[in-house]
C-alpha cells in the first residue's frame, strides 16, 4: 500500500494530490524559491497578474498542512532526506474535508445554480436609486464591531448581489500585500464578485483615505491608494479585478467576505 505521493512542481493546483490525501498518502512537493510568477516563469508570463506561487498546490498546503502535505526544497538534499525519513515514521489516515466530498460539491453546485445569474447584465454601482433615508443619508460602509473591517450599512438597502453584501468585509492591505493575504490574516477570503461594490469614492470615504486626486486606470492592483503620495486609483476595467495583485507602492482596498464552516467557497448566508 502506497503512503507517499511525490509531486514535481507541475501542473499547478491539480486534483491528483487531493485524491492521494483522500486515500491516505502524504503529498511531498517542491518549494519554489523565489515563487513562480510572471516575472520569472514562462507559464505566468504575459498574464495580467502579480500572483506568485511558492508551491504547485498552495491550496492544499494551506487547507491540509502537515502531516498530509510537506513542502521542501528539492535542491537541498539534507532537507529532502529529513522529510523522507519523517514521512517513513508517520502514519496518516485518509483525509477529505467536507467541502471536497460529493455532498459538499453538490451543496456548492446547488448554491451556484440557484443564485448566480449570467444572463442579466450587472448594473453600474453605486446605483442612482439606492434607497437611503432622506433625513440621514449616511455612509455606505461603516465600522464593524470588534473588527478592523467595514461592512455594508444597515441604513441602506443593499442592491441584489450574490454572495449577499451582508458577507462583505472591506479591508485595507499593507504595501506589497495582496488581498488574498490581507483577507486570510483576518480568517476571511477575498471575494472577486464584491470588487464592484468597493471600487468607488464611497469606499474611500468610509476608509477615511486622504486623496489629492482619484483617477480611474487599468491596473490589476486597483482599487488602491498610496499613503505617501496621497494618490487614489479606481479600476477602469472590471476584467482586471484581482485578489492576487500587489504592489510595494500601494495599499489595496480588499473585498473580503466571511466563510461558511467547512465550505470556504460559500459565505455564511449563501445557503
Description of the structure:
- With 271 residues, this protein is of the alpha/beta class.
- Helix content is 21%, strand content 20%.
- The protein contains 7 helices and 12 strands.
- Strands 7, 8, 9, 10, 11 and 12 form a 6-stranded mixed β-sheet that branches.
- A hairpin with a 6-residue loop joins strand 5 (141-143) and strand 6 (150-152).
- The protein is globular and about 65 Å long.
- The chain starts with a strand and ends in a 14-residue tail after the last strand.
- Residues 127-136 have low confidence and may be disordered.
Secondary-structure map:
Blueprint: E1 4-6, H1 16-22, E2 26-36, E3 53-55, H2 58-63, E4 69-72, H3 77-89, H4 102-115, E5 141-143, E6 150-152, E7 168-172, H5 179-185, E8 189-190, H6 195-198, H7 201-206, E9 213-217, E10 224-226, E11 231-235, E12 251-257
Parallel strand pairs: 1-2, 2-4, 9-11
Antiparallel strand pairs: 2-3, 5-6, 7-12, 8-12, 10-11, 10-12
Low-confidence stretches: 127-136
Secondary-structure element sequence? EHEEHEHHEEEHEHHEEEE
Q: Please tell me how large the radius of gyration is.
A: 21 Å
Number of strands: 12
End-to-end distance: 40 Å
Annotation field: number of helices? 7
Biggest beta sheet summary: 6 strands, mixed
Query: What share of residues is helical?
Result: 10-25%
- Quick one: overall form? globular
Structural category: alpha/beta
Quote the beta fraction.
15-25%
**Mean pLDDT level:** 88
Amino acid at each position: 500500500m502506497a503512503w507517499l505521493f511525490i509531486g514535481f512542481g507541475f501542473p499547478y493546483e491539480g486534483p491528483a494530490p487531493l485524491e492521494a490525501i483522500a486515500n491516505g498518502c502524504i503529498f511531498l512537493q517542491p518549494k519554489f524559491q523565489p515563487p513562480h510568477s510572471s516575472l520569472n516563469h514562462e507559464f505566468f508570463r504575459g498574464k495580467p497578474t502579480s500572483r506568485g506561487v511558492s508551491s504547485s498546490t498552495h491550496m492544499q498546503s494551506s487547507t491540509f498542512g502537515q502531516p498530509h502535505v510537506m513542502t521542501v526544497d528539492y535542491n537541498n538534499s539534507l532537507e529532502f532526506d529529513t522529510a523522507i525519513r519523517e514521512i517513513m515514521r508517520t502514519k496518516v489516515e485518509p483525509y477529505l474535508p467536507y467541502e471536497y466530498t460529493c455532498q459538499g460539491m453538490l451543496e456548492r453546485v446547488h448554491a451556484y445554480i440557484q443564485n448566480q445569474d449570467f444572463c442579466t447584465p450587472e448594473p453600474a454601482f453605486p446605483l442612482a436609486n439606492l434607497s437611503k433615508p432622506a433625513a440621514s443619508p449616511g455612509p455606505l460602509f461603516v465600522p464593524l464591531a470588534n473588527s478592523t473591517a467595514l461592512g455594508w450599512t444597515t441604513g441602506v438597502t443593499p442592491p441584489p448581489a450574490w454572495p449577499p453584501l451582508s458577507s462583505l468585509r472591506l479591508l485595507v492591505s499593507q504595501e506589497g500585500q495582496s488581498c488574498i493575504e490581507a483577507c486570510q490574516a483576518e480568517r476571511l477570503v477575498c471575494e472577486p464578485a464584491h470588487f464592484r461594490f468597493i471600487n468607488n469614492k464611497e469606499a474611500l470615504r468610509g476608509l477615511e483615505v486622504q486623496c489629492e486626486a482619484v483617477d480611474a486606470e487599468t491596473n490589476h492592483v486597483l482599487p488602491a491608494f498610496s499613503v505617501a503620495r496621497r494618490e487614489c486609483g479606481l479600476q477602469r476595467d472590471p476584467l482586471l479585478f484581482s485578489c492576487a495583485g500587489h504592489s510595494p507602492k500601494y495599499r489595496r482596498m480588499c473585498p473580503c467576505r466571511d466563510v461558511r464552516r467547512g465550505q470556504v467557497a460559500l459565505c455564511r448566508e449563501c445557503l
